[in-house]
Design goal:
Radius of gyration: 17 Å
Number of helices: 5
Structural class: alpha+beta
Strand content: 25-35%
Number of strands: 13
Oligomer: single chain
Length: 265
């Protein structure tokens, strides 16, 4: 879904991009181990504090150009039938937003991914990722020249290693069709895992230069949220933010794009 905001088209080439990936756990602030029990009801029922948390998240999202969000709801009973991707886009001032529904539980829950962007994509395509249990997806947005675009992939991988392995094989095929690629999301595995090693060996995606821990938010000791880029994209900074509004911490990256990439705004 794209917002209906109409803006004049302006093209900027070779600019710096500020990226962010964040699993927001449907706006549930699980920032202590016992919150998984005491706040578990918020996965099913409305809670006024959910939107207080989302408003806090929206305030720091304003500093970024492209935001990949996982564990959102497209509008069900637990959110008062509010699409959380649209809500965050409006609160953070993003003119373009897209929600991918991956697991439709009717009025109970509408699980999915969300992409917020300050640049108008030329195309956005949804992909259902393979797995025994359905409900994992990838959202692929293209920006700029159709012959040599910037391709941004938002993914949320499975918990099981075998399923992740199949999903990353699928993603490898998508990545290898393009030169300028950014992959962002909750991958549920460390950068040195066997399935991630296979990803780095079969694509041009670069391994992270340092291990950044994002989970759990109250005592991060696992590196499972990642932003990966191909060599044509220069990384100037990558870091984890200390905003504890979920059981994950957000990961941010600043990159410089090649002069050949023009982004319409």
């Amino acid at each position: 879904m794209e917002s209906a905001v109409s803006t004049p088209t302006e093209v900027r080439a070779g600019r710096k991009l500020r990226l962010l990936s964040y699993n927001i756990q449907v706006g549930i602030a699980s920032i202590r181990p016992h919150h998984y029990v005491t706040r578990s009801w918020r996965h099913l029922l409305p809670a006024s504090t959910r939107f207080d948390t989302l408003d806090r998240i929206a305030r720091f999202l304003r500093d970024y150009d492209l935001v990949a969000l996982q564990e959102l709801d497209a509008g069900s009973h637990r959110t008062g039938f509010v699409d959380l991707t649209e809500y965050l886009a409006n609160r953070a001032g993003f003119p373009f937003w897209y929600h991918q529904l991956n697991r439709d539980l009717g009025p109970l829950a509408q699980h999915g991914n969300g992409l917020l962007t300050r640049y108008r994509p030329s195309e956005v395509v949804e992909h259902k990722l393979p797995g025994v249990i359905p409900g994992r997806g990838g959202l692929v947005a293209r920006f700029g020249n159709a012959d040599n675009p910037l391709v941004v992939m938002l993914i949320h991988l499975a918990l099981g290693r075998r399923a992740r392995d199949r999903q990353l094989e699928y993603i490898c095929d998508l990545v290898n069709h393009h030169e300028h690629v950014i992959v962002m999301g909750d991958m549920n595995t460390a950068p040195n895992s066997p399935e991630m090693n296979k990803l780095f060996c079969t694509t041009r995606l670069r391994e992270p230069e340092e291990v950044l821990h994002t989970f759990p938010s109250w005592r991060p000791n696992r590196s499972i949220d990642h932003i990966l880029v191909t060599p044509s994209i220069e990384v100037s900074r990558c870091h984890v933010l200390t905003h504890a509004f979920s059981d994950h911490l957000p990961i941010a990256m600043e990159v410089n794009l090649p002069e050949t990439i023009a982004l319409p705004v």
